[in-house]
Write a structure and sequence with these properties.
The protein is mostly helical. It has one domain (13-130). The protein has six helices and two strands; from the N terminus they run αβαααααβ. The chain is globular, with a radius of gyration of 16 Å.
């Protein structure tokens, strides 16, 4: 009846929301990542799903840049496992669709498997024409 008394809801900012989730996952969103987060939102992804994409792509880039540094690779693997654990919690809370969580979980585990398939997982994640074009986020964790 008196709609003008209702408090207007603030506009959602998908980049800010995805950036907040990324901080929980141990990353800081970079300028190009802001655009990817917005594009992801416009494609129907939740902030948690966007953050998962950005985190996975960033971890793939970190593995590529590690140049077989075993200490760095082990630290990246620990980070990736923690990201996977937190994504599982998001999915359980309904903040991510189960099928997206499952795809990202498989990709993250493929990234940290130190076998012949690791490079193919890195290449697959970095081959995305948008997300793989430029660094999306940086880790808040020092790997070496």
């Amino acid at each position: 009846m008196f709609g003008f008394f209702r408090k207007k809801q603030p506009e959602r900012n998908p980049a800010v929301e995805a950036g907040a989730v990324l901080k929980i996952l141990g990353f800081d969103l970079l300028p190009y990542g802001v655009g990817v987060a917005v594009a992801s939102h416009l494609s129907g992804y939740s902030p948690h799903e966007s953050a998962s994409l950005i985190a996975s792509t960033t971890l793939a880039l970190e593995i590529q840049n590690a140049n077989n540094d075993i200490i760095a690779l082990m630290m990246i693997a620990v980070h990736a496992l923690e990201v996977t654990r937190r994504l599982a919690a998001f999915a359980k809370q309904g903040l991510m669709r189960e099928e997206i969580f499952e795809n990202d979980r498989i990709a993250l585990l493929g990234l940290i498997a130190t076998d012949a398939d690791q490079k193919s997982w890195v290449d697959r994640l970095l081959s995305d024409p948008v997300a793989g074009k430029e660094r999306l986020a940086k880790s808040r964790i020092k790997y070496s």
